[in-house]
Amino acid sequence: QALVQSSGENDMDWTFCGLWLHDLGSPQLDVNISPGCSNVSVSANRTTLSIHGQVTAQCRRFNGIQLDHYGLGHEKASNFCLYWEPALDRLILQVKQQNFSLCRSAHPEGSCCTDLSRSSIGPEVVHGIKKAMIRTDVISLETFSGYTFKGERVPCSEEHFCSFTVKTMSNERLCEYEEPTITVHLPPALKLAMRTTTKVAVTFHTNTTFFQVTFSTKILGEVVDITVENEIIADLSEPIRISFYHDAIQVWRSHRAWSRDCFTVDPVHVKWLAEGCVTSQRGVEHTECFCNHLTYFSVLVELQPRPVRHLMALTVITSLGCAASFISCVALIVFLCTKSRQSKEQSVPIHLGLALSLAVLHLLFFLTGVLANLGGEALCAWVGAGMHYSLLSSFTWMGIEIFHTFWLVYVVFTPSPKPYIWNLLGFGLPLIPVIILVAVGDVYGLREVFSADDLSNPYQMCWMKDSTKALLAHYVTNITSVFLLVSSGIVMLILVYRKIRIRDEWKQTQVAFLSIWGLSCLFGTFWGLTFFEFMSDLVLFFSCFLTSFQGFFIALRFYMLEWMRKRAASTLCSNSTGSTRQHMLQEKS
Ligand SMILES: *[C@@H]1O[C@H](CO)[C@@H](O)[C@H](O)[C@H]1NC(C)=O
Ligand SMILES: *[C@@H]1O[C@H](CO)[C@@H](O)[C@H](O)[C@H]1NC(C)=O
Ligand SMILES: *[C@@H]1O[C@H](CO)[C@@H](O)[C@H](O)[C@H]1NC(C)=O
Ligand SMILES: *[C@@H]1O[C@H](CO)[C@@H](O)[C@H](O)[C@H]1NC(C)=O
């Protein structure tokens, strides 16, 4: 049995040692340290050992120290070591077993100056630094006047420090007991399986950038590679046990679920595979893998599509709602077309535009499932693009409805823009993002929606694909539109309310007014809700219902307003101001 333990090696701390060849007499120390991160130099001549530089976070020190009190004056050479602990901002010089704390502990904030690398060496001299060493590596056996090292800033915090530093120099305990990152337990069965050698090589890879990971997977923590030279070990009777202590999973794409599993590398195809290991999740930061062969191992997080609860019921509601909405919108279009021939009312083309875009949206939404199963990839992409276009067009028309009402109330004396301008805006503007996305490519296409009840049989639809690019497009176009629609709706609602509240026709018009604004805002909100996937079942059903019956409600609202207008007209026609009120009402609807 063997137990291999590895903990992150502390690379931040730095030690420089050497033998200072000096004169008899009165050697001294020359210190000039200031905050910064450029370079630090250690140089020596026959009288002085100098430490100059800018590597500290806060420490500033500038003085000379006489060393003859410390017994250096009687000898011609002294061993010295300089210890630099950037995470503690501590610099200690040890000369002849005597410690000089040049910089006492402090807490650096945010970054540390570390990775000190040699940038220059002084000339070879008689009195200087001999046998210079960095940590335990000898740089040179000759004597040089000095060495300069260049530092580099790296992020560091107490957490960083705690997870990477093994304390060696002081008794201070900043961190609690540190867990090893990976422990490997090799079973006796392995020894029996090895034929030629008895050596097992275990390599820990902290830098995992080399190991290619796909879009939907991510390596959690480190990679460990266990091999036996020239042998392939597989099908062990007793598994190798590897414990990974890693960070808790960052929810970096929260709209999808994730799974945490042990993976191994298939060395032939250089691919991560989930086979050959059994995963045991011991805690959010601890995963244990039981594997029956030797290769590279790691814990990978795999993103998986988030299953939708009650998908069947939601699909039925959506289909019914879309059918009802489509029929209502078509009826509304027919009604508006006959009406527009009779009257020159400004708002008719706007209602018509909204009804038309909603009709197309609901029709495509109704058919998207069927088309996804029947048509090929290309057709699906076009259906997805069409659906996106009609959705954006509906948003634009809702915005126009809101803006039009605002215009009628605020800009009373200027006639509102001509219908062709509205058409250009409502049908033309949404074309721009859709054309751009089609040109970019790989945005529209087949999208699978997984049911929580049956993961193996996803519901297919044509919409935006499930990729980073498409997700970005969704945020930039849809979420932004909903946000603009709802926020501008609320602002204009308040402005219009303030203006018309004091007019005497307010009482008659308020119902109509509120119904328009309220509904416009509500629709925007429900589309918005549909996009946010953290919803309780009730909200999910509610928003699904309202979204799919949207066209139906818009038509219903329209007929109610027509009815109210007729009633108002008949009760007010005897009044002297009746015609003005009627005008206001007409424009408001
Ligand atoms: C040390 O750093 C300073 C400031 O960055 C630079 O001017 C100087 O040349 C450096 N010295 C050496 C020896 O690299
Ligand atoms: C030794 O170096 C110090 C500072 O680096 C300097 O002040 C002193 O003059 C030097 N001494 C000799 C003998 O070169
Ligand atoms: C001097 O400091 C070093 C490093 O912190 C430590 O290992 C050593 O024990 C100290 N020596 C004395 C005499 O305090
Ligand atoms: C990890 O290795 C890659 C090259 O394989 C390198 O580009 C990257 O800088 C390394 N990262 C760290 C943190 O060392």
TrEMBL record:
Membrane-spanning residues: 311-338, 350-374, 394-413, 420-440, 475-497, 509-532, 538-559
Keyword terms of this UniProt record: Disulfide bond, Membrane, Transmembrane, Transmembrane helix
Keyword check for Transmembrane: yes
Molecular function GO terms recorded: G protein-coupled receptor activity
PROSITE patterns assigned: G_PROTEIN_RECEP_F2_4 (PS50261), GAIN_B (PS50221)
A single cellular component GO annotation: plasma membrane
Compartments, record wording: Membrane
Domain G-protein coupled receptors family 2 profile: residue ranges: 314-562
Gene3D superfamilies according to UniProt: 2.60.220.50, Rhodopsin 7-helix transmembrane proteins
One Pfam family in the UniProt entry: GPS
Annotated ranges, domain GAIN-B: 160-307
Main localization category: membrane
GO BP annotations, alphabetical order: adenylate cyclase-activating G protein-coupled receptor signaling pathway; cell surface receptor signaling pathway
Membrane topology summary: Multi-pass membrane protein
Identification of the protein by name: Adhesion G protein-coupled receptor G1
Organism: Cynoglossus semilaevis
